[in-house]
Each structure stands twice: as structure tokens, then as C-alpha cells.
Amino acid sequence: MGASSDHAYTHLEGFRRVGIGGFAGSGPRFGKWREQAQAWLRAPGAQPWDVFLTPAYPEDPAVEWRGPDGETGRGPLDALPEAARRATIRVWTPAVETLLTVAQWPGRARGRLAQALPYLLEEQLLADPESLAFSHRETGAGIFVAVTAKERLAAWRKAIDEARLGATFCPVTLALPYRAGSWSCHFSDGQWAVRTGPYSGFGAASPLTRVPAALRQAMEEAAKTETVPDAIVLFGGDEALRVLIATELGIPVVADPRPIAAGETPPFRLGETGGAVSAGGIAALRALRPAFIALFLIIALGFARTMFDWVKFSHEEARVHAQMSSLFSTNFPNAPVLDPARQMRQGVARLAARAGGAAQGFLAILTAASPALAGLAPGDLTRLEYRHGQVRCALRLANFGALTALKQNLAHAGLAVRVTHAMSHQGGVQALVTITRRSP
Fold it and tell me: Which of 144, 153, 150 shows the shortest CA–CA distance to 174?
């Protein structure tokens, strides 16, 4: 791997390294976040690479790998092709390192299942439960559990981290293709792996010259429960091994040339409870990824445009404020500048009020009062003056009834009427009336 690529991976290491919860410093939740971050960094539909650990790993650093296009190789993790480092890595761990079993959980509190697993499987465990990592998958057929030593998981994870890779871990037992009614079998590096169901199987260390005792015992147990498979499918073995298994077990053995882990989705991620995300769920998320990316870009661009407009209008506001302050100081040199826009509006209103042209001014009041005043006889209105938003009318009317009628007409026009003086004089009434605009 080139220097520039190493530099890039150094900066993306926190996002691209994923897998089980680290037992050597990083928590399981952080490991899951890293895994999700790496999944989003990959292109939709990227095919995974498979890495097979040997029983001696990591003491013996050699591993085997296979790419989606048939690329194969063997060597240390540092020798992985560049394409593998940018793709999903599925690490298949030795079968003998993981116990696959079934647990019965009578409780209803599923949130406590992970804490209860060590006690439910206590009779099947050969080591202290505190030293073991439990992964489980709940199905209609029961709760399937994978048990692996934390020390081994930590060693695998440390080696993957040092190689700056992101990976999920699953026992190679579940890499064997499974078909209902048959068992799958594979032999490699002195280790036998047998898959007996979607989430069940076992591993055994035995030479190639004989069938392992664990396989014989499993076949005897199946005979007692009448669940003997119709055949055993042998992957990667030659004709001599096929004949050996068929002869010793007395069951048909079918050779399948396909490589293991072809099209298989790991049902367990070792070190994580609850199993793995289904292939359908991953496919659905990847299908929606372009829409999520487009939505994120739209939101990001909208936010950027809003920030740009905010900065632009802030500068414009400062410029206009300075201009208004200058204009206000020029026209009102003796007034302090507080809010120039508001001060100018108030000043203009005061000037208009003095001239009688404001909303409360002489012209406005007279316009509203004209219909009522037009009904007066000639000579009834003797004087008319305006002062401080009030129109004062001196009237000479025939009687008090005419004064009352005038007040009502002015009130109907939306005006406030106040009689400040009224007296009888020479057979009529003299009155002084103050008219203002009615407050809203």
C-alpha cells in the first residue's frame, strides 16, 4: 500500500475500522458506531472480501483471503490487496474457537437476556463466564448463542486494528452453505467444521485420516432424535475424503466444488448481542442511501444559503443604520441618536401634527366632522380653531335638542365630542364644543 494511501487511512481510521466491541480499550457501542460509519463510507452494493483465520492466528500471521471476483491469496494482513482495504471485510474465525448452542429463556424481559445467558449455559461452559463473550440471535426455533473467549477475540481484533482494517467476525462454521435436510462439512488446516443448521454446528481438531469423534457423536444424537440428515455436503475435499466420510458414517456424501462463504451473510457478529443485521435490511438501507445523501446535501446547502443571507443582510443593516444615523443627525442636530428610524418617524409625526396634516390633525378631524357640520344652518358655526390635535367649534343653536343631535352625528362619524361650555342666550343656545379623533 502506497504512502499516500497510508496517510489517508490514518485520518479515516476512526471511521473506517469497524467490527465487534473492542476488548482492548474500545467499548462495544463505539465499535458498532465505527462499523456503521464505515458502511456509509462505502459505495452502495460493494461486495465483501472474506478472510479466513487459521487456528494458530495471530501467532502465525498468515491468513487466507478471497475477493468477490475470485481473487485469492495467502499471507499476512498487510499483504491484502488495495481493493480489500476499501471494502467490507468478513473475518471467519476457526470453528473450534466458538461454541454454537441453543438457550431456553423463559423470561419475558428480553432486555435482560444478554445478562442471563452465562447462567443459562453454565452447564455447557468449560471456562469462567467472565472470560467469555456471548452473541445471540433470537428466532422462532429458539435463542441461538455463540460463545467465544474474550482473549481470542481481543487478539483477533488487535491484529485487525494494527492492519488498519474494518471487519466483522463470525465462526467459519457458519460460512458453510446450508441446505435444509443436509449437513455441510469442510476440512482445512487440521480443523473440521460442520454446519448442522442455520445457526448451529461445531468444530473439531482431527487428522484427515479419520472422521472426528465429534461428528460421529453428533450423528448418533441425530439418530436418537430422528433428525439424521439425508446427506452430508463436502466442500473443498477430494474424492478420497468423500469416500472416507461416507464409509465411516454410512451416509451419502456429496462433493460440492463451490467455495465456502459464497453468498453467505454472517448470522452472528462475535462480541455483539442480538445477532447481525439481515441481508434484506442492509440492502434496503443501501438502496435508500442516495436519497439520504441527497436530503443531507439539500439541508446542508439550505443552511449554507441561510448563513450567507444572514451575513449579507447583517452588513446591509449596519450600512443602512449608519446612513440613517447620519441623516437624523443632519436634520435633528440637537437630538441624541438612539433609534434613528423610530426617532425620524416620531419627528415627522410631530411636524405633521403641528401643521394639521397628521392622522390626528386638523384636516383629518374636519374631514370626518364635515357631514355633521354641513347640516348646520348659516350662522350656527361662529368660530373654528385647531390646537394640539383638537378642533374647537363655537356654536349658536336654536335649542339644546339641536346641540344633542349634533353631538350624536359627530359621534357616529367616529369622533369624540366634549361640550366644554353651553348656556341659553337670547332664545337660543351658545356652546363651545371640542372635537378629537376617537382613540382606537
Answer: 144
CB 44 within 8 A of CB 51: no
Question: What is d(CA 111, CA 97) in angstroms, rounded to the nearest whole number?
Answer: 27
Q: Is the dihedral of CA 259, 195, 242, 227 positive or negative?
A: negative
Per-residue model confidence as pLDDT tens digits over 186-216: 988 788 899 988 888 888 887 777 888 888 8
Is 1-172+265-277 a domain of CATH 3.30.420.380? yes
Q: Which of 278, 169, 184 is nearest to 233 (CA)?
A: 184
Q: Which three cell numbers stand for residue 436?
A: 378629537
Name the CATH superfamily, with its identifier, for domain 356-437. General secretion pathway protein M, EpsM (3.30.1360.100)
Residue type, 63: V
List beta partners, residue 205: 191
In angstroms, rounded to a whole number, what is the distance separating the alpha carbons of residues 24 and 57?
Answer: 17
Tell me how far CA of residue 276 lies from CA of 93, 172, 282, 294, in angstroms.
16, 15, 10, 27
The residue ranges of DSSP E strands in 225-272, in sequence order, are 231-235, 253-256
Report which secondary-structure segment, H or E, holds 171: strand 167-171
Distance between CA atoms of residues 186 and 170, nearest Å: 16
Residue 26's pLDDT is 44
How do the domains of the chain map onto residue ranges?
Answer: 1-172+265-277, 178-257, 356-437
Residues of the chain with pLDDT under 50: 1-26, 39-44, 273-283
Going 237 to 241 to 246 to 249, the CA torsion angle's sign is: negative
> For position 22, what pLDDT does the model report?
37
Asked whether 255 and 245 are in contact (CB, 8 A), the reply is no
Say what the pTM is. Answer: 0.53
Could you tell me the sign of the dihedral formed by the alpha carbons of 43, 49, 53, 59, in that order? negative
Query: Of 193, 361, 174, which Cα lies nearest the Cα of 263?
Result: 174
C-alpha dist (Å) from residue 148 to 3, 94, 340: 37, 11, 76
DSSP state of 46: P
> Can you tell me whether residue 435 is helix, strand or coil?
strand
DSSP string for 321-350: HHHHHHHHHHH-TTS--S-HHHHHHHHHHH
The pLDDT value given to residue 283: 45
- The Cα 185–Cα 183 span in angstroms is 7
| Topology of the domain covering 178-257 | Nucleotidyltransferase; domain 5 (3.30.420)
Predicted pLDDT at 110 = 59
Q: What sign has the CA pseudo-torsion 306, 312, 315, 320?
A: negative
- Residues 146, 167, 196, CA angle at the centre, nearest 5°? 35
